[in-house]
Amino acid sequence: MEKYNHGEIEKKWQKKWAETNIYRATESQEKPKYYVLDMFPYPSGAGLHVGHPKGYIATDVFARMKMMQGFNVLHPMGWDAFGLPAENYAIKNKIHPRIAVEQNIAAFKSQLEKFGFTYDWDREINTSEPRFYRWTQWIFLQLFKQGLAYQSKEPINWCPSCKTGLANEDLEGGKCERCGSEIERKPMRQWVLKITDYADRLLADLQELPDWEESIKEMQKNWIGKSEGATIKFPISDSKNPNDQKYLEVFTTRLDTIYGCTYCVVAPEHPLLLELGERIKNREEVERYVEESKKKTDLDRMEAKEKTGVELEGVKVINPFNQEELPLFVADYVLAHYGTGAVMAVPAHDQRDFEFAKKYNLPIKCVIVPWQKDGFLGEQDDQAKKIYEQIKAGQVCYVDYGGLVNSGEYDNLTSEQAKEKLVEWLDKEKLGGKKINYKLQDWVFSRQRYWGEPIPIIHCEKCGTVPVPEKDLPVLLPEVEKYEPTGTGESPLAGIAEWVNVPCPVCGAAAKRETNTMPQWAGSSWYYLRFIDPNNEQSLVGEEKDKYWSPVDFYVGGAEHATRHLIYARFWHKFLYDLGAVNHKEPFTRLQHVGLILAEDGRKMSKRWGNVINPDEIIDKYGADALRIYEMFMGPFSQAVAWNTNGLIGARKFLDKLWRLNEKVASDYRDSRALLALGQKTIKKVGQDIADFKLNTAVSSLMILVNELGQAEKISNNLYESLVKLLAPFAPHLAEELWEKPGHQESIFEEEWPRYDQALVADEELEIPIMINGKLRDTLKVAPEIAEEEIKKLALAKIKVKKWLAGQEPQKFIYIKGRAVNILV
Ligand code: ANZ
Ligand code: ZN
Questions:
Q1: What is the Å distance from ligand 1's center to 643 Cα?
Q2: How far is C-alpha 706 from the chain's CA centre?
Q3: At how many degrees (to 10) do helices 645-661 and 624-633 cross?
Q4: CA of 35 to the centre of ligand 1 (A)
Q5: Which of the ligands is closest to the CA of residue 255?
Q6: Distance CA 703, CA 691 (A)
Q7: Shortest CA distance to 540 belongs to which of 564, 515, 588, 575?
Q8: Is residue 650 within 8 Å of residue 707, measured between CB atoms?
Q9: Which ligand has the nearest atom to the CA of 510?
Q10: Residues with CB under 6 A from ligand 1
Q11: Which residues, in sequence order, are CB contacts of 730 under 8 Å at separation 6+?
């Protein structure tokens, strides 16, 4: 038999698939649809390394199985081509970004093609092409018309090296996520999207996504950061003019601690500082402090080890509950953009206030005791009493809930009860009330850069901010000679007079185009919709096609997108849903994150470390199928695993072995009972594992079967064909070749996925005796590989077991693997 020549085979089948258009998706009504999507890449100049395609291989395996299971599969690919990464590459290499992007896309595509993916290239999209970004601009116009895109002049994050404003989401530890520069705060005109209007729905609808990983939902929850609390107005004492009573409004989540407030704090940006003016006796000192804090980022301020601040001399605030007069500070541990930019400080029960009070010798007043029961302070044990003494002495800060003391008429209530009563009082006195706050802030949406979608707005002196009429879309990004950022806070577009100067669409007077561009996240916030209907000239996606293909059934990509991309896309999707432009509330039904492939040395693969492995070389030497198998076999899909060339060689050997099995196939042969059973179990396991994205164990069960078949004298045609079909999602070229050999005319991907006979896989279950105190009381049927916790749950749930336990907690639960359960009471 000839040798397994991967080079020839892979080329042959890739050509054939392209000729027969086998992966082209149309809206067939006969089959159920399945839309599987990869997070599309930005075409960087460095090309693909072996880590990038891991997710693409996995979705491809999945897509191929779905095809064979009778689904009409959509599996598209495209390019996230606008934005900083592409532009910074272009600047560094002195190539125009458009040309750099073209070259990089060509290089990426030729690399991807070698893997033999099921992409429907007819649907390829590129976010930097006018036919695509026309619709990105259209969405912006709708946001503007609905009041969800507005201009602001607040200080924003400015990267001095990328020379552009950035959103909070673009920072990593207070630094620019792209280039690592320290971020400055700079006031400038910018476009902002009101994502906060959707905060509640972005949070609540996470519950409708059972097939998202919990960890990603958790990250979104934290990013949205809903907190329920109250606002309180503290009168500012000593108002010279009683008709002009000023108040300090604070936000707190711990109204129950109000009697423990010993001072208040405003952020350095708080407007009250200006309003109070002369009344602050140490104004100069305060102003110096405010200047100093401008140099710090929010993150520095939150994480500072030493809290700093300055008391506003001559100003006091009054706790409205007990009329106590309290000092007021300015301190930068309070952030301007959260809550009201001011806090009531309770050092006994808040860690930051505790540290601050210690440093400035402020009183610490304990108002919460570390025990409570149904409104009575009954449950004190010695430990709790000891802690209480320490809180009272100002030695520790107690941040949990408990029971109230030193709180006037609210004494003896629990924290929860007190909060209710206290807020009622505030409401009645009109001194505050319930308030929900979000950490999520509006999305700073403009960039002072060249390589992005122009914002479709015209500024007219008479008419103000005028949207570009929809019929004039797209607003083309003009050609420029100088695309480097200017650093002046204006984008390079501002220098192109012919482009900037236009008549006002409303009054016809001379007006100017908006010269800011959109951030790199714009196109990716809706691209998955365009794949459904890439050539539609009338709308961003046709209603019927959206109804047919949406939502994305399965979305796979990097965990670094857990908040940014996935929150932005959900926001735009919900907005489009409200407009009636799409049919579903959520864009992605199931979500899975990819674990990185690390270099052989355990570090991240990077040019910088010189440890990058190029897939082209691997594919030349071992074949795409071997690489595909290896990457799926490396380890659990969502975990980071280091590359290991020996593993790759092992994968190749497995395929060689499989190739040789062909010689043993005999159509009239009857396999041994054991082999037959193993075949059936493998069918069940591979199908289930692919569905659950346990791709490594799917490969390992294929390996077990191939090993067994290697020992057999002969193999029935039936069993062999099942094996080839199970292999097909992982090693599609080889499977096609093996399928064609005996004379099959159609592609294996038009074949049906093998079925198994329930009866033949049933013996997998073990019958486990359950003993209680050594006596047999019941039995349990379980899979042999069942985990201890799992069997414990099942055993304790059995009615007979419950009866014998009669409500007692078992003292000990012993599982002797595969043999017996023993419960001791
Ligand atoms: C009094 C208090 C007492 C507080 C106590 C906590 C514990 P989350 O849960 O993150 O929403 N806070 C309010 N606005 C702030 C701002 N602009 N900058 C910094 N801190 C701010 O946190 C809400 C709590 O953070 C609020 O509740 C407030 O401190 C503080 F024992 O009020 B608390
Ligand atoms: Zn005008």
A1: 46
A2: 39
A3: 120
A4: 44
A5: 1
A6: 18
A7: 575
A8: no
A9: 2
A10: 227, 251-254, 257, 267, 334-335, 338-339, 341, 343-344, 346, 349-350, 437
A11: 61, 625, 628, 629, 632, 698, 699, 702
What's the pLDDT tens digit per position in 556-577?
999 888 889 999 999 999 999 9
What residue spans of 342-403 are helical by DSSP H? 351-360, 382-392
Nearest CA to ligand 1 atom 22: 253
Distance 803 CA to ligand 2 centre (A): 83
Q: Is the pLDDT of residue 667 over 60?
A: yes
Atom of ligand 1 nearest to the CA of 267: 17
Q: Contact 186/165 with Cβ under 8 angstroms?
A: yes
| Nearest ligand for residue 462 CA | 2
User: Does residue 186 sit in helix, strand or coil?
Assistant: strand
- The rounded Å distance from CA 445 to ligand 2 centre is 24
Contact 572, 580 (CB under 8 A): no
The runs of H, that is alpha helices, within 270-414 are 272-276, 283-294, 298-303, 351-360, 382-392
Atom of ligand 1 nearest to the CA of 368: 31
DSSP-derived 3-state class of residue 524: helix
According to DSSP, the β-strands at 715-716 and 665-666 are: parallel
The per-type count for the chain, helices as H runs and strands as E runs, is 28, 35
What's the pTM?
0.84
How many residues in the chain? 825
Please state, in angstroms and rounded to a whole number, the distance separating the CA atoms of residues 809 and 447.
62
Per residue in 359-381, pLDDT (tens digit) is 999 999 999 998 876 544 555 67
Q: Of the candidates 520, 451, 496, 486, which has an alpha carbon nearest to the alpha carbon of residue 102?
A: 451
Pairing of strands 501-503, 766-772: unpaired
Cβ-based neighbour number of residue 423 at 10 Å: 20
CB 480 within 8 A of CB 487: no
385-418 pLDDT, tens per residue?
888 899 999 999 999 999 999 999 999 999 999 9
Q: How far apart are CA 119 and CA 247, in angstroms?
A: 62
Going from the Cα of 342 to the center of ligand 1, the distance in angstroms, rounded, reads 9
